Every structure is written in structure tokens, then in C-alpha cells.
Amino acid sequence: MKKSLGAKTIAYPTPVFIIGSYDAEGRANVMTAAWGGICCSKPPCMCISLRKATYTYQNIISRKAYTINIPSEDLAFAADYFGLVSGKDEDKLVKAGLTAVKSDLVEAPYVKEFPMVIECKLIHTLEIGFHTQFIGEILDVKVDESAVDSKGIPKLDVVKPMVYAPEVGKYFGFGREVGAAFQMGKTIKER
Q1: Contact, 93 vs 67, CB < 8 A?
Q2: Model pTM?
Q3: Is residue 117 a contact partner of residue 136, using CB atoms and an 8 Å limit?
Q4: pLDDT at position 110 over 90
Q5: Which CATH class is domain 17-189?
Q6: Where do the domains of the chain lie?
Q7: What GO molecular function annotation could you give as one example from this UniProt entry (predicted)?
């Protein structure tokens, strides 16, 4: 028997994304966001949902671009900090000792020290109540060379992305490999 938890924002995995944007003066800004993910294969797109009250919201509206930075577990302290204060009040990257890099594809910065970044051009917005969903076309995915295998695939054990559990307010690392997608199910299909 399952226990009803009610209508809540609990879904797994909930990503830990660091959203990069430039403000009106051209200053790099980052914020932590958990509401987002892949939303289309062709064209390749990612969505994020932000409250209008965030500094990043207006930056994305103005610049029509954002980056999604994937922090590694060893930089969890910075990811958490980026969600605690507003970029209009302080330079979060400088305070965290991290480096903003100007994208050559979109009007948004990315974080040099994070192992993976996704550069997005804003193509749609959707008002959904308390949040606005931004849909960005992925123009490029950049991954540290040390975190890519010989076939050009990111190595999760090197990237070390995190998930967020909103109901307990904690970050978790990824676990062990479970099995091969599009393979394990063949044992049932072939019965």
C-alpha cells in the first residue's frame, strides 16, 4: 500500500543546476535552480523554471540566453551558496572564488571550475503560476576533457553531478550503475 503525500514538488531526480546570466551592466551572475531538465530532443532543448522575483529572471528576459552549469560534489558548498544570496547584492562568483567565462555562443557566462556547462538560447517562456518556465535551445554542451571518455561521452563518476531532495533540504551524489538502458528490458520483451 502506498501513502499519499499530497500535491508536493517531490520528484526524483531533482537536479542541482547553476544558472548563468549577465545583468544589465554586463556583470556575471549565477543562481542555483532545481526545477528543470531536458524538454525536447529536436531541437535539443532544456527548460528551467524560475520565480519572477529572482535577479536571474530579468537577466534571461533581457539577454535571451542562459547557461546551465553542472557542479561536481566537491563544489557543493558553492552551489548551495549561490542559492542563498541575490546577485544584485553581491558578486557571488568572486566571493566563492570561482571564475566566470564568457560564452562564445550566447550572452551568458559559465563557471570555469564546474565540469559541465550547457549553453542555451531562449526560445520560449511559459507562465505557470508562481514560476516562469524558460525553454532554451541547446547550442553547445561543454565538458572538461578529463571528464569525457574516448567516445566523447561524459563520465558521471568524474563529473559527479548532484541531486537535490527538496523535502529534506539536502544534496545527494549519484549512486552506482544499475544496468544498461535499452538492454535490461529485453529480458522481458523476449519472453
Answers
A1: no
A2: 0.94
A3: no
A4: yes
A5: mainly beta
A6: 17-189
A7: oxidoreductase activity, acting on the CH-NH group of donors, NAD or NADP as acceptor
